[in-house]
Write a structure and sequence with these properties.
8 helices, mainly alpha, elongated, 245 residues
Length: 245
């Protein structure tokens, strides 16, 4: 089974190369002749919209043939090439017979158009094999989550996107202005300590109470003064006892 698959893949590659080269040759021939000249030729053959048809046929055949060889987007490429050959069959070759050359006469028959159209349709239906860019892309996508290298790349990409989102949503803070330096106020002189209060003077004694103090000498003197006020003062006597004259 594996050998048959490998043979099939190799045969599909060869078929894609052969069909793709024929398509590329016809497309390059139309571009080399010029889109205007190809459009005039289509107009003489009765093709509707000759200029648009010339552009479509030239670029689809050239680029589509290259895509067939590489095995890129085979369903789309094969379908476009089939439409191109279907238009050529209907508008140009259907009434010319099967053979392109009959004996010594060129009849412009539809044998080549039919062969190329059916090959393009077969490749569009999935007959391109596994040796294609389409299969390689599918295998890489399927193996992507299991590959640790791919997971690291995805994590790095997600972290980078998240950092950009945070940078966009975070408000930009204006640069802080430096506050002007404050001048230090002069230090106040230390307050002098309050002077201790002077001791209060003792209250003066009331009048008439001085003699009531328990002082023997002063009391006696006062008593003597009071008693002397009533007795007459004796005159001094001399030594002999006589009073002075």
């Amino acid at each position: 089974m594996r050998s048959r698959s490998l043979v099939y893949d190799v045969a599909a590659v060869l078929a894609r190369i052969g069909v793709g080269v024929v398509f590329m040759a016809h497309g390059w021939q139309k571009i080399e002749a010029g889109v205007t000249a190809t459009g005039e030729s289509f107009d003489a053959l009765g093709v509707p919209l000759p200029t648009a048809a010339a552009v479509y046929a030239a670029f689809v055949e050239l680029l589509g043939g290259a895509a067939l060889i590489a095995g890129l987007a085979l369903p789309v490429t094969g379908a476009l090439l089939f439409i191109d050959m279907l238009g050529a069959f209907l508008f140009v070759h259907a009434d010319q017979g099967l053979f392109m050359v009959d004996g010594d006469r060129a009849q412009n028959g539809y044998e080549l158009v039919v062969a190329l159209g059916m090959a393009a349709l077969l490749l569009a239906a999935g007959a391109g094999g596994r040796l294609t860019l389409d299969a390689w892309i599918v295998r890489r996508r399927a193996a992507g989550p299991d590959d640790p290298g791919d997971e690291d790349d995805e994590d790095d990409a997600e972290s980078f996107v998240e950092s950009l989102r945070q940078a966009e949503t975070k408000p930009v803070e204006p640069p802080a202005k430096k506050a002007p330096a404050r001048r230090s106020a002069p230090k106040a002189a230390p307050k002098a300590a309050p002077a201790p209060p002077e001791p209060a003077a003792p209250p003066a004694p009331p009048a008439g109470t001085e003699d009531d103090k328990p002082v023997a000498g002063r009391r006696k003197a006062a008593h003597r003064r009071r008693s002397g006020d009533t007795q007459p003062v004796k005159p001094p006597t001399d030594a002999a006892g006589d009073a002075p004259s």
